């Protein structure tokens, strides 16, 4: 039953009707909703060194013939990885569109033509695949890379730049063409066809540059869009952490269409330049704001129609658009198949008619299709394996979508809100929902405990008893289950740190051992991920001052040969046991580490309490109970670990600690110091800590009294130490 006044998105973000977004379980938005953050994607685009190529006038002429004259002019633009990552969370490969709160949007063929100046009409970019580089590079570049520069059918961009970035002035025509082919391979490999393999580019594009006039007849813009669609689809799967393709195109498309993350330029352009990506090449004015994925996600989750520019090029100067580009813009509305070698992706402008100035009606269903992985041996022409896709591209001019003047966009939005994922991030964080649920269960338990049972029928009595049992069981699990805690600052569960027991070890960046009890997990804005020692709540009872069970921000860090338990503000090199709260009854701590070979257990104490250490050395074989200096602590005891194996313990997760030195930092209220010889019944020494005083610990290098060798051996034979604060 939906809670009154609650946003429906808080419980069901969609889709209500899964017929369109049938891959929701694999989508990154499902992981984000469950509190699994992957952070910003690693964006692979290698444009930073393009400006280091020095082209001769003859080379520039050949580049323009091949259809890359405008792409060559686009400088490297700084990528906003969090913005790109947030857009990917909205991309759906079932429809090849972004699913925003206002409806579907996408990067269209028209966008590619206007933003990059690439041809969207022509022959499909397809050819022969290669599994080695030597033969094809020798044929088209006159040189083959050695094994350190080649990997399968890919060659490193650094090799192309090293040997072909400067063409000799007296070079022959053949040499100029080879250097130009190398540049074109570098250009497409660092921009529109950038891969996640690092700085490599497949050599399968080289044969398409054999004749530069023929190269200019390919639909490079359509291929670039097919490549980007595939990259977006792959990155939208929750298991992925990288993205490739022409990310400059994606980011600048967002700048034009969405009023989100737009850079503030030093000045508005006096006049428009083509391609339109050049509008955003200026430097930003003013300080740049650190915006993360969460910021952009929340912004997109609350996107309003006023934040969307459906027709961003409407007011651009159309006279700067070249005629060969303007004449093909109608194909930007073609419902067709985009092809880039083995990558075939659907272009569905009928789902984004508002980007063409038309009313949006409910689009027809998209047929489910499997993106085939056409890994083939070298020397195989893919044209024979993609006949249906090639036929669809050939008929592109016959599938230009038209608008419907009678379309009802209210009807469309009602349909759209049922089939879409309305939000990506949770409106209410997981930690808030958890606290609210626990509060409700407590209230139910209270009502059940105080419900009048007189006059109830047996079945009613059984129902009340069942309710009480379930509520108590839930609360018992809350107290007695495993609690994973960590000293993460700023999280919702980690704010109330005052009066809590903290355990921490010094970290020096050493790699964790393979048998560590728990690996760390990244925290999200919705749910803090905790790392550190797993503490059983039925082993450690630390009541909060207001008698409410709260999460205890504790952690231990395994390091080398030294175990330390210390309060967060302190920096003590060995062990501190510090009581941080008043009102702890019968809490015990024990060291569970094995194979302790040390015979030195010095006591690090404050200068005002040296007498306590001297006394402790005399009674090491007898003392088992020392009064606590805190105000409300009762029956505090120091238990021998061999006598009461089930006592409350905070166990050190390290095994095999050699030569460990354990120092007990004692901070005793001067007015409450007790004689250590009173109430002696065991064999364990203890330091008495008072949370009301600020701990004062001597420097590590200061000499401190040490226990005798005989007493130390007796102590170590206990297998651990139990201490009650």
Which key features would you list for this structure?
three-stranded antiparallel beta sheet, mainly alpha, 18 helices, disordered N terminus, 725 residues, 14 strands, elongated, disordered C terminus
Structural account:
With 725 residues, the chain is mainly alpha-helical. It has 18 helices and 14 strands. Strands 2-3-4 form a three-stranded antiparallel sheet. It has a three-stranded antiparallel sheet with strand order 5-6-7. A two-stranded parallel sheet has the order 1-8. Strand 2 and strand 3 form a beta hairpin. Helix 2 packs across helix 7, helix 3 (81-88) crosses helix 11 and helix 4 crosses helix 9. The protein is elongated and about 110 Å long.
Radius of gyration: 35 Å
The biggest beta sheet is recorded as: 3 strands, antiparallel
Judged by helices, strands and strand pairing, the structural class is: mainly alpha
Number of strands: 14
What is the first-to-last residue Cα distance? 47 Å
Strand order of the largest sheet: 2-3-4
Low-confidence stretches: 1-6, 479-725
Average residue-wise pLDDT: 73
As a percent range, the share of strand residues is 5-15%
Which descriptor suits the 3D outline? elongated
Helix content: 25-40%
Total DSSP helices:
18
Helices and strands, with pairings:
Blueprint: H1 28-33, E1 42-43, H2 57-65, H3 81-88, E2 91-92, E3 97-100, E4 103-105, H4 109-116, H5 134-141, E5 150-151, E6 154-156, H6 157-164, H7 173-190, E7 200-202, H8 212-215, H9 220-235, E8 242-243, H10 247-257, H11 293-301, H12 323-326, E9 336-340, E10 343-347, H13 387-394, H14 409-419, H15 430-449, H16 458-480, E11 482-484, E12 534-536, E13 589-590, H17 610-618, H18 709-716, E14 722-723
Parallel strand pairs: 1-8
Antiparallel strand pairs: 2-3, 3-4, 5-6, 6-7, 9-10, 11-12, 13-14
């Amino acid at each position: 039953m939906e809670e009154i006044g609650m946003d429906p998105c808080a419980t069901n973000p969609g889709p209500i009707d899964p017929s369109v977004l049938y891959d929701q379980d694999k989508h990154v938005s499902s992981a984000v909703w469950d509190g699994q953050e992957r952070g910003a994607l690693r964006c692979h685009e290698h444009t930073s060194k393009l400006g280091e190529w020095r082209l001769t006038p003859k080379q520039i002429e050949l580049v323009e013939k091949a259809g890359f004259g405008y792409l060559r002019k686009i400088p490297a633009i700084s990528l906003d990885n969090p913005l790109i990552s947030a857009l990917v969370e909205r991309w759906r490969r079932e429809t090849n569109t972004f699913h925003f709160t206002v409806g579907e949007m996408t990067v269209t063929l028209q966008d590619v033509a206007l933003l990059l100046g690439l041809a969207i009409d022509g022959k499909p970019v397809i050819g022969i695949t290669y599994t080695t580089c030597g033969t094809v590079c020798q044929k088209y570049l006159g040189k083959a890379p050695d094994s350190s520069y080649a990997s399968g059918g890919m060659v490193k961009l650094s090799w192309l730049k090293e040997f072909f970035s400067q063409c000799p002035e007296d070079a022959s025509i053949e040499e100029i063409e080879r250097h130009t082919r190398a540049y074109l391979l570098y250009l497409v490999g660092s921009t529109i066809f950038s891969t996640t393999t690092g700085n490599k580019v497949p050599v399968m594009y080289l044969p398409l540059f054999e004749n530069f006039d023929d190269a200019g007849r390919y639909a490079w813009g359509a291929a670039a869009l097919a490549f980007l669609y595939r990259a977006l689809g792959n990155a939208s799967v929750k298991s992925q952490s990288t993205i490739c393709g022409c990310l400059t195109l994606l980011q600048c498309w967002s700048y034009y269409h969405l009023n989100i993350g737009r850079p503030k330029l030093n000045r508005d352009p006096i006049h428009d330049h083509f391609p339109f990506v050049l509008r955003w090449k200026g430097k930003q004015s003013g300080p740049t704001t650190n915006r993360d994925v969460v910021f952009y996600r929340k912004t997109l989750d609350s996107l309003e129609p006023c934040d969307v520019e459906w027709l961003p090029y409407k007011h651009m100067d159309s006279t700067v658009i070249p005629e060969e580009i303007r004449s093909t813009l109608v194909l930007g509305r073609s419902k067709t198949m985009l092809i880039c070698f083995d990558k075939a992706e659907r272009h569905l402008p009928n789902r984004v008619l508002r980007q063409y100035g038309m009313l949006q009606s409910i689009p027809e269903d998209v047929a489910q299709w499997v993106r085939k992985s056409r890994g083939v041996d070298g020397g195989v022409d893919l044209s024979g394996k993609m006949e249906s896709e090639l036929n669809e591209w050939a008929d592109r001019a016959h599938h230009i979508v038209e608008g419907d003047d009678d379309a009802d966009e209210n009807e469309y939005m009602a349909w759209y809100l049922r089939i879409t994922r309305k939000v990506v991030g949770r409106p209410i964080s997981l930690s808030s929902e958890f606290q609210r649920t626990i509060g409700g269960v407590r209230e139910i338990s209270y009502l059940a405990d105080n419900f009048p049972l007189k006059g109830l029928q047996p079945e009613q009595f059984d129902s009340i008893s069942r309710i009480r049992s379930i509520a108590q069981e839930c609360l018992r699990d809350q107290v007695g289950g495993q609690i994973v805690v960590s000293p993460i600052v700023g999280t919702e569960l980690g704010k109330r740190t005052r009066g809590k027991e903290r355990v921490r070890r010094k970290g020096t960046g050493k790699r964790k051992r393979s048998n560590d009890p728990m690996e760390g997990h990244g925290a999200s804005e919705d749910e803090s991920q905790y790392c550190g020692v797993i503490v059983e709540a039925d082993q450690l009872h630390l009541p909060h001052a207001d008698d409410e069970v709260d999460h205890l921000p504790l952690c231990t860090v395994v390091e080398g040969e030294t175990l330390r338990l210390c309060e967060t503000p302190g920096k003590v090199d060995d062990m501190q046991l510090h009581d941080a709260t008043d009102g702890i009854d019968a809490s015990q701590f024990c060291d569970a580490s094995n194979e302790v070979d040390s015979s030195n257990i010095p006591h690090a104490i404050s200068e005002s309490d040296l007498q306590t250490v001297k006394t402790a050395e005399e009674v090491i074989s007898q003392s088992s109970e020392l009064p606590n200096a805190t105000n409300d602590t009762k029956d505090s005891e120091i238990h021998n670990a061999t006598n009461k194996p089930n006592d409350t313990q905070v166990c050190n997760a390290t095994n095999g600690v050699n030569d460990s030195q354990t120092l007990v930092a004692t901070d005793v209220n001067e007015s409450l110091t007790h004689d250590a010889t009173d109430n002696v019944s065991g064999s364990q020494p203890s330091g008495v800590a008072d949370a009301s005083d600020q701990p004062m610990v001597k420097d590590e290098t200061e000499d401190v009294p040490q226990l005798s060798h005989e007493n130390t051996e007796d102590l170590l034979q206990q297998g651990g130490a139990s201490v009650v604060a």
